[in-house]
Design a protein that fits this description.
mainly alpha
Length: about 160
């Protein structure tokens, strides 16, 4: 009798897509924007933002959107332009942040599910706690931008990604 054991491969580490120094820098931006946030939460948020970027690069026409919490990390990543450009080279596509004015007519209730599915398709496991809907306030972040109905107060015309041009 022969017993075989199925080899289960762990998902890739999204942190490997940026240098340790770059990851720390993006995390510091999240911490600066969110006084009182613990480092572990900020690192999880940045990790999800990198997964989001990878999913957008792999599926640029799916109109993927970050959750309110992940948006905090994605905006921090966007501020680190050299890191963002290097990440684009690694992923093979520059993911643009395409501003849209908020509005109920643009609300896409399936966006967060579709985005998490795209993250899985890119080879990563989404962190479900960070992909909660806009009404979930269990993780407090400075970002208030996520499509909702009606849009949250304070959400300007810079809160969604529709993929690259």
């Amino acid at each position: 009798m022969t017993v075989t054991q199925e080899h289960v491969q762990a998902p890739p580490d999204p942190r490997a897509l940026v240098s340790p120094a770059a990851f720390t820098g993006i995390t510091e931006t999240v911490l600066t924007n969110n006084p009182g946030m613990d480092r572990g939460t900020a690192e999880r948020i940045v990790t999800e933002a990198i997964k989001f970027e990878a999913a957008c690069a792999q599926s640029p026409r799916l109109r993927l959107k970050p959750s309110r919490v992940v948006d905090e990390g994605w905006h921090a990543l966007i501020l680190h332009t050299r890191v963002k450009a290097d990440l684009a080279r690694r992923l093979g596509l520059f993911v643009h942040h395409v501003p849209e004015p908020p509005g109920p007519e643009r609300h896409d209730p399936g966006a967060l599910v579709r985005t998490q599915d795209a993250i899985r398709a890119a080879g990563y496991a989404p962190d479900p706690e960070l992909w909660a809907g806009p009404a979930d306030g269990s993780i407090s972040v400075a970002a208030t931008c996520e499509p909702s109905e009606p849009p949250p107060a304070g959400c300007g015309a810079d809160c969604s990604n529709t993929g690259p041009d």
